[in-house]
Amino acid sequence: MDETAATVSAVDTVGPDTIAITFETPTGFDAEPGQFVLVRATIDGEELSRYYTLSSPGVGETFEITVGVDPEGDLSPWLADREVGDDVTIEGPFGEVYYEDEPSVVVFAGGPGVGPAVGLGEAAASAGGEVSIVYRDDEPAHEERLSALANAGAHVAIVGDDSLSDAVAEVADEGQVYVFGFQEFVEDVRDALESAGADFDSAKVESFG
Prior knowledge:
This protein is α/β, with parallel strands linked by helices. 23% of the residues lie in helices and 38% in strands. A hairpin with a 2-residue loop joins β3 and β4.
């Protein structure tokens, strides 16, 4: 949808320098897990915009984005200062990589890719699907939601650089593969999948640059 205002309904810390912002869903806004929105703001006279992937499993009454806060950044500290009732300008959704009711999903997430990973994983789990998540980060976020998924029967592995390949190989053929992360992480997952004899070309990939 075109540019519109979304009202903040909650701001929660979900990891080191990481927040989740929940918005009331604007009328007419619809999106699928894995898609992203453009957030706009004018700060000190400068118009700024950044893309943030949804981290909620749906957008019924509310939706959520997860924001890594860089204290030296421009837009993320401003977002971290938002309070309940504030309006934030959004546009979208965008993106061709999203959950399409596959009966089994395997989500590989690097860094900020954990946002779409938990949202997509929760959507698939609530639909009765099989869920596997491999998340590489030295300072994980959304550990509470990942633990809840694991307790509900999902395969969840939080790994470092040295253990990524083994974790990928363990679930490579368990369902539709999704990859969310920066390009270096995408390439590492590609290499690990190919080493395991899996088909990377069929993966749904969203690289953050």
